Amino acid sequence: MIRPTPTARGSGSGKVMASVAALSPPYSGRGPDTSDTRLFGTTAPFSYGGILSAMPARGAALKKEVRDFWNADPCGTRYLEKPNDFAAHSRARYQLEPFIPGFAQFVSARGKRVLEIGVGMGCDYLEWLKARAVATGVDLSPASINQARRRCELAGYQPDLEVADAERLPFETNTFDLVYSYGVMHHSADTQRCIDEAWRVLKPGGEARLMLYHHPSLTGLMLWLRFGMLPRKTVRQTVYQHLESPGTQSFTQPEVRSMLSRFEETSIQQVFSPGDLLLHKASARFSGPFYRALWKLYPRFLVRAFAKNLGLFLLISARKPLQ
Counting beta carbons within 10 angstroms of the beta carbon of residue 153, is it exposed (0 to 12), middle (13 to 18) or buried (19 or more)? Predict the structure, then answer.
């Protein structure tokens, strides 16, 4: 079991601010830019970077809102058929997102030191333990950590879990063989810093496997039709305000490659989310008759055939250089 040691960010964790030629100005990885009024918000990404840099209190407030959101509703709670029915959650997760095991490569992690950033209710984290990885997990939400710990203990495992901030990981530099974070870092006010921290705690030659939200996406466009069109918001603004916890970010592939510029062997696979295809169980705010009809009549075949570049999920793997 890895015992985390609180430490300051290492000297190798300076922020990557490499310019993306297609963007003006360069994207900071810190959220959307309010100066962008176009629908998709691609030339000047809808970014709160400057605001958060100048107003740390707002950044702290946003982080508290994110923590409170996931404390009230840990990711995947809607799939629990009864309390502690974690098997139902696992079934739903891997049926809706069957690409997760192949992306995570749980079975290849035996004996490796693995850090999962944002364990949620611990579905993937338990798979690392089953694979006999030396796995540590963190989450900003204490309620999620409690659920994940309960899940692992019921399965007969002793988890190494703690509440921690992905922007300031409490681990020594060069600790882990693998950092895995699935659908988490885009909920941070400073996604770039989360990526820098993943880079810092990886051993040289270690691998990061991350899932980040793509811009634009079908999910973003559907949210824009519901919440952003009449107020004349961009898709990015709408995602920021209405997709899951407050402040959710989304990124183009060039932006992702810029944020990961310190890594090598970076690969990105774009896939549909359950939300893009309306396969998931609708949340309470989308439970009316109109939404039930939309879920039933949605043209999934056409979407799969003609909208592959509008998938929400970017499955990213990248390696920390040996030198």
Answer: exposed
Q: At how many degrees (to 10) do helices 142-154 and 123-130 cross?
A: 40
In the three-class reduction of DSSP (H, G, I as helix; E, B as strand; rest coil), residue 10 is classed as coil
pLDDT of res. 1: 39
The token pair at 73 is: 């509703």
The class that CATH gives domain 44-319 is alpha beta
Measure the N-to-C terminal CA separation of the chain; round to a whole number of Å. Answer: 27
201 closest CA partner among 261, 264, 136: 136
Residues 57 and 52: their CA atoms lie apart, in Å, by: 8
The sign of the torsion formed by the CA atoms of 39, 43, 49, 51 equals negative
Q: Which residue has the tokens 């995570």?
A: 104
**Per-domain residue ranges of the chain:** 44-319
Interval 204-245: pLDDT, tens: 999 999 999 999 999 999 999 999 999 999 999 999 999 999
Q: Which of 184, 167, 54, 40 is nearest to 116 (CA)?
A: 184
Provide the total of helices (H) and of strands (E) in the chain, helices listed first: 12, 7
Whole-prediction pTM:
0.84
What integer pLDDT is reported at residue 52 of this predicted model?
Answer: 33
Tell me what pLDDT residue 57 has. Answer: 47
Distance CA 235, CA 40 (A): 5
| DSSP 3-state of 320 | coil
Interior angle at CA 218, CA 265 and CA 285, nearest 5 = 120
CA 5 to the chain's CA centroid: 24
- Find the helix packing angle between 142-154 and 56-72, rounded to 10°: 40
Predicted confidence (pLDDT) per residue in 30-39, tens digit: 554 433 445 6
Q: What does DSSP say about strands 176-182 and 160-163: parallel, antiparallel, or unpaired?
A: unpaired
